[in-house]
Fold these 2 entries.
Entry 1:
Amino acid sequence: MTDEIVVVPGDGIGQEVVPAAREVLEAVGDFEFIEARAGDHVRESEGEALPEETFDLAASADATLFGAAGETAADVVIPLRRAVGSFVNVRPARAYPGVDALKPETDLVFLRENTEGVYGGHEHRLTEDVSTLTRVVTGSASRRLARFACEYAEEGDFEGFTVAHKANVMRETDGRFKEAVETVAEKRGVETEDALMDALAMHLCLHPEEYGVIVCPNLAGDVLSDLAAGLVGGLGLLPSANLGPDRGLFEPVHGTAPDIAGQGVANPSATILSAAMLLDSLGYTDEADAVNGAVEAVLAEGPRTPDLGGDASTDDVTAAVLSRLD
Ligand code: NAI
Ligand code: MG
């Protein structure tokens, strides 16, 4: 049966980079695409940023490709991740040959807890002066992430993984996270090292080559992966996959880039690489490899968008990727 892919461009450069990635998917496979709406512009016209129809489509399709949402990002992305049942956000950050990276030796993968932590939405304004946030960490979500991390490390031939945490301060919540992850890994015979996330941020800047797979609580994964984007040449290069047991949501790490939106110069690489992760999740591994290879070749030889020092347009880069897939 033809795989169904829901396509949600969202706002800003999402409208530019998602069609580019869709073209790439069309070039390598026979999929049924369903366009769906979400984001600031949808809230303006319909009153809510994520129409129920889009949520339902994401919840039932084989995969969803999403661009970005502006101010409404939290109202769109977090429910969409829930729609696909995602429990892990996979965020690779690697420096590509030919790209002027701060740390060309960077080749990292962040496995970010995707359901709880401080992104659970339990925020309250108690008085005029006091606001609170309740952080939820469960052993079950931490163990599920750990099982995924063990499989990821085994399949990818990694020696093990690093567990990022701040259990010296958040003893109960990060303490539980760290212990749950380490216990699963130990039982599976997968090596782990733990790292305090603040010190890890510094070490990643100085010696990214000493790290491979990094397992993180939700907020830490968000922050550390953006830091890694800085090491490899910018947000235009970082893809991500929100994986659930049966389906996934694939999206670039970047946002709507209002400073360049509408100019046709957004770097489509992050979204095309996200499409490659989508292909991989659906079992199209050869096609995923081909797309990754095509993006890598274009990054090495150009054309390049302005964020990478070039003067090419989104369309130029997309056409160059497509021509390498012929
Ligand atoms: P951003 O990722 O949109 O932009 C940060 C910087 O990176 C900007 O200078 C931008 O031009 C550049 N950049 C990002 N992607 C690029 C690409 N593909 N090609 C070339 N340059 C690129 O983050 P920012 O500025 O913090 O947020 C802008 C809006 O996006 C906000 O409204 C925010 O809420 C939203 N956002 C949405 C996300 C989502 O939907 N998943 C994630 C992050 C931010
Ligand atoms: Mg982020």
Entry 2:
Amino acid sequence: MIKNEFIGKYSIQGLLSMEFFLDSTDLEEIKRLNNLGIIDGLTTNPSLIYKAKTPFEKLIKNICSEIKGPVSVETVAESSSQMINQGVRLSKMAKNIVVKLPMTWEGIKACVELSKININTNVTLCFSTSQAILAAKAGATYVSPFIGRLDDANLDGVQLIREIKQIYSNFNYKTKILAASIRTKNHVSQSAIAGADVATIPPKVFDTLVNHNLTDQGLEIFNSDWNKSGQKIL
Ligand code: E4P
């Protein structure tokens, strides 16, 4: 298999794997976690940009120089023509920009046009299978189902991922399923089981992925026994 240089889905061993994106605009956190060597890309949204309190272009350029994989940046316009203009401008900020478009008819129109000129797109705020079909038909690179917000509304976010996966396999759609609005490590595992191609994860949730109390207990016992053994690793 040949790895696509920009949109990868391969682990460090070259095996097909779920991709991990960070859902953040906090540069310190991004650098800290990117240091692990397992971050494949990143997503932003207007609320995260607001939180960062840094000039927009400077922030995006800094993020794109840290994260080498796809970085989603959202357009904020109502008409498809404005979205296309913004998308073209955003795509010139760095070569790894993915243009995020809202799940509206104008967003879908803009997605069709940006796809025609080979600009990568992410149709965001997806809450239903019909919306996911539209994104795929428009040639979106990614569709972002918001699983946490569905759960917040007493619906089943992971079930949506499962259904989109089934539909995309039925028709061999190439659009990647990017599980978004992730609130817990369980969301990450369940999205992987449901077949999401990517999970975009806030840093505070990312930090919890490694945790298990039996790991902590096991380590404590191993360390204590090792210390008692008087052995050394040269
Ligand atoms: C995805 O691209 C969005 O930035 C994000 O996952 C939204 O998550 P929230 O529901 O926690 O705001």
